[in-house]
Amino acid sequence: LSNSARKATTVGEMVNLMSVDTEKIVQAFIGMHFLWSAPLVLCVAVYFQILTLRTEELSLLRRASLLSAATYSMWYLSPFLVTLLDFITYTLTSDSAVLDPQTAFTMILLIQAQNFQLTIVPQAVMWVIQVGIAISLTIESGILVGIVGHVGSGKSSLIAALLGEMEKLTGNVIINGSIAYVPQQAWIQNLTLRENVLFARSL
Predict the structure, then answer these.
(1) What gap in Å lies between CA 149 and CA 155, rounded to an integer?
(2) What share of the chain is helix, strand, coil (3-state, %, to 5)?
(3) CA-based nearest residue to 138, from 164, 191, 168, 174
(4) Helix or strand run (H / E) with residue 30
(5) Would you say the pTM of this structure is higher than 0.70?
(6) Do the Cβ atoms of 110 and 83 come closer than 8 Å?
(7) Do residues 161 and 173 lie in contact, with contact meaning Cβ atoms separated by under 8 Å?
(8) Domain definitions of the chain by residue range
(9) Would you say 99 and 91 are in contact if contact means Cβ atoms under 8 Å apart?
(10) Are 187 and 165 in contact (CB under 8 A)?
(11) How many Å apart are CA 71 and CA 77, to the nearest integer?
């Protein structure tokens, strides 16, 4: 440093410039790279996380499709297989058994009558099960829950039950904290105008 610079600047200021200000400049250059790299890293991480979840979803959908295909295959093949096994059993149980057209058509009519009853029983069981509604649900604090399902599966009914808009016959509904409900369309509670506006709050 020149003599004039030494006179204009104290020793403390020079020490601050060398030890503090230069460190701040270095940190600023490092921080500049974090400003553009951090959002990029976050985007890449979210992309790979979504890709992983999508891969798991496709695997489950593939498995469900295979099970559905196997179920429908057995559904349509079962009448043919039952008829074939009945014919084989009839011809092998006795040496005197003759499978003539009269016997064959009689067996086919009986099998068709049985098939209708056997196919309607599972559907009837599903109808009976859908009549009874029993929900046991526990949601921990801080967890994001999505409710999905086909039309008429009870998504809106579940939300209405949590809001206390459905009649509860037995059991308990315990909710900690406050509720903010944003429906797809405007709605009002079965209460007075004042209670609909204030939502149990005082003026």
Answers:
(1) 7
(2) 65, 0, 35
(3) 174
(4) helix 22-93
(5) no
(6) no
(7) yes
(8) 1-70, 142-203
(9) yes
(10) no
(11) 10
Q: How confident is the model at residue 4 (pLDDT cuts 50, 70, 90)?
A: low
26: tokens are 């270095």
> Tell me: the pLDDT tens digits for 132-168?
666 778 888 888 888 887 777 778 888 888 888 877 7
Return d(Cα 30, Cα 22) in angstroms, integer: 13
Which pLDDT tens digit goes with each residue over 32-52?
Answer: 888 888 888 889 988 888 888
d(CA 44, CA 104): 67
Query: For residue 130, how many other CB atoms are within 10 A of its CB?
Result: 11
Residue 69 vs residues 62, 63, 66, 81, 150: alpha-carbon distances, Å:
10, 10, 5, 17, 20
Kindly give, in sequence order, each residue whose CB lies less than 8 Å from that of residue 133, ignoring residues fewer than 6 positions away. 154, 157
Alpha carbon distance 14, 18 (integer Å): 6
Average pLDDT of span 113-137: 75
Q: Name the token pair of 29.
A: 């250059």
Q: Looking at residue 151, what is its pLDDT?
A: 78
**Judging by beta carbons within 10 Å of its beta carbon (0-12, 13-18, 19+), is residue 64 exposed, middle or buried?**
exposed
The long-range contacts involving 36-45, CB below 8 angstroms and separated by at least 24 positions, are none
- pLDDT band for position 171 (cuts 50, 70, 90): confident
| 199's tokens | 């939502």
Type of residue numbered 97: A
Sign of the alpha-carbon dihedral angle for 141, 144, 149, 153: positive
